[in-house]
Amino acid sequence: MHFSPDTSPLLQGLNNEQAAAVTLPQAHALILAGAGSGKTRVLTTRIAWLMQTGQVSPGGILAVTFTNKAAKEMLTRLSAMLPVSVRGMWVGTFHGLCNRFLRAHWKLANLPQSFQILDTQDQLSAIKRLSKQFNVDDERFPPKETMRFIAGCKEDGLRPKDVVARDPDDRKRVELYELYEAQCQREGVVDFGELMLRSYELLRDNDPLREHYRRRFQHILVDEFQDTNKLQYAWLKQLAGPVDQGGGAILAVGDDDQSIYAFRGARVGNMADFVREYNVMHQIKLEQNYRSFSNILDSANHLISHNKGRLGKNLHTTQGAGEPVRVYESPTDFAEAQWMVEEMKQLLRDGQNGDGTNGVQHRSEIAVLYRSNAQSRVIETALFNAAMPYRVYGGLRFFERAEIKHALAYLRLLENPRDDTSFMRVVNFPPRGIGARSIEQLQDASRAMGCAMSDAVTAVAGKAGANLSAFVAKIDVLREQTQGQNLRQIIELLLDHSGLITHYQAEREGQDRIENLQELVNAAESFVTQEGFGRDAVALPIDEHGQPLATDATAMPSEGELTRQAAPQTMINADTGETLSPLAAFLTHAALESGDNQAQAGQDAIQLMTVHASKGLEFDCVFITGMEEGLFPHENSMNDFDGLEEERRLMYVAITRARKRLYLSHSQTRMLHGQTRYNLKSRFFEELPEHTMKWITPARSAFADAMPSRRDAWQNNNGWQNNAWGGGAATAVAPKPVPQRAAPVTSGPNAWVRSGVQVFHTKFGEGAVISIEGVGDDARAQVNFPRHGTKWLALSVAKLTQV
């Protein structure tokens, strides 16, 4: 269907498909809106068109979005397009509209007029109160797990009487759900799930009210329809009515290729169900992309075509091919991060020199996307060392994440048992029955005795005092167990015995936190090797005989004050002569990285985020990192067909965030849980078209030649099975061993390293070699770095390059 631009000023600038969507008759319709195809413009113009042509009044429209930001943007655009007040229009999120509905009909909903809404923290507190009141075993039925169970039931539209309990634990959870409902009703409060469920039930059970709203809302517009869950779709059907009863017309706008929230209950099948149940005759595809060049779009199209059961569309653009998609293979995850930083610097240099094609003008136009939050740590370190401001979008920097701060607090208590700040942070985390009143008593006793809180626990009587003493004893035992251990071993022991891993296993989205805690092991391993400690250096302070010592040190020197001692076990403060163990030095490093290089509000900064967090955003330049089997696609999805398809949709979302330049990178080796893993590049590379890609991998080394090919082998690091590769199973082949150097420094690849040579190190910058000692893997060089002082560096690890 073609429209003349003169038909209406509202249609000017729309392409044919957009104009067709805007001017649809009153009937159920599905708009398949590809990434960057202008769906927000279509939605708002559709509403304006309906009102301008007199088909509906502002009060006859219901528009549902998934974020308050999107709802405000829609209302702002409508205000600019039409000379009407939008205040009375029903435009908002599912929860916002349900709140408005229940406020209007609070009596019918059996709620007090001034009912309050519980946020997630309030809901958790309410469940904790309930558990305490009825003596519920918090370890067997953790409050967070109970909250997740209740939320899941409500998303499925189930009250306690409707839940089928499969075992005694399920029956107990149903009982808690029932008690929780009674408590909320008694207190006149509702949680987010209750807003939706009670609104749905009120429409379902009250015929006159339901018919009133069906007559009122003649046009129901839903954004991001692919992200609706079971209850949200059921609520929409109550408002629209059966297909043969002439209720409101649903205009569903979405993209099944961007459905990436199954873990939150989103059901991509709602789109196909809508088409079938409402016999949708009007289906329009918005395929013209206004964001990206065709090399980027062709990559996205080819990749997503491997998913089955799609409604189907193909993005295209009139902007031309643009730059090729650059693919980089690095030997290690550290090299991958360093390459990204150097590429960013060049992009910014080109942009500042006026080269808009090959560069970017602002750091905020560059985004780094990763599948797992834990991946950000290595990237953050590289940016930190390069003094490049960055911002973690939708999350916290690695060393600022709550689970990492908890683990570091335990480590600080091992180093210094009198650190009251760390003591306060973890004395009741994970929960161990030590309440606020007990902490107050301990603080009072500590002040009265003039000692640290850990030394005053015996002054607190009763069960609270026993719990406090047990915690102090736990830390003392852990300190004894870690004596003589290296830093990696200490952190592994801490994670095993602190209860942090077990605690987060009970959380709905706790896997990310567990991966971050495991990444802390990698951070420690990387730190000791980069700083020149031996990998097995004893991490607690040692005496002259190499035996661990306790320390009460509270002052930590800055990184610039640290110089490497000849012995591989300790570091010395150049000003005070104080000996620092690897643990103390690592805690200093963590404090410095968490407090430095943080982009201020409004400051131009590199954007770091997970692929999930990137949805809805766009950038001139996008780096997608860690594209390896088990990481992206994630190992949790490997043996699940639906899971693998969702991973592919995630990759599709990541690709379509890029406007001008797209980089894909993977690493031959990556540190996981303190161990080096040999990785295979992601299967997604073989699902991308060759004509769009440019491989910028450096010349292959002996190390690279030793790695197995993605086509030839499947690395079975975690017992993964390859049942979906090329239609058949592949044989697991272990990687060939990496060649080891056993020659003295005077020969082999490091023969060029000698006194007086100028070298470059990825962390410390340029420096001069002072002396060399050792042979083979034990060879090391003493290097003077102007910015960081003198360092002893293991040549097998440091990867120095000659200046």
Write the topology of this structure.
Elements: H1 16-22, E1 29-33, H2 39-52, E2 61-65, H3 68-81, E3 90-93, H4 94-104, E4 116-117, H5 120-133, H6 143-155, H7 168-187, E5 189-190, H8 192-205, H9 207-216, E6 219-222, H10 230-240, E7 249-254, H11 269-277, E8 282-286, H12 294-304, E9 325-332, H13 333-352, E10 366-370, H14 376-385, E11 390-392, H15 402-415, H16 420-426, H17 436-449, H18 462-482, H19 487-498, H20 500-505, H21 510-530, E12 562-564, E13 571-573, E14 579-580, H22 582-595, E15 606-610, H23 611-614, E16 619-624, H24 641-655, E17 658-672, E18 675-678, E19 693-695, H25 702-705, E20 758-761, E21 765-773, E22 780-785, E23 789-794, H26 795-798, E24 801-802
Parallel strand pairs: 1-7, 1-8, 2-3, 2-6, 4-5, 6-7, 9-17, 9-19, 10-15, 10-16, 11-15, 16-17
Antiparallel strand pairs: 12-13, 13-14, 17-18, 20-21, 20-24, 21-22, 22-23
Binding site for ATP: 33-40
GO molecular function: 3'-5' DNA helicase activity; ATP binding; ATP hydrolysis activity; DNA binding
EC number: 5.6.2.4
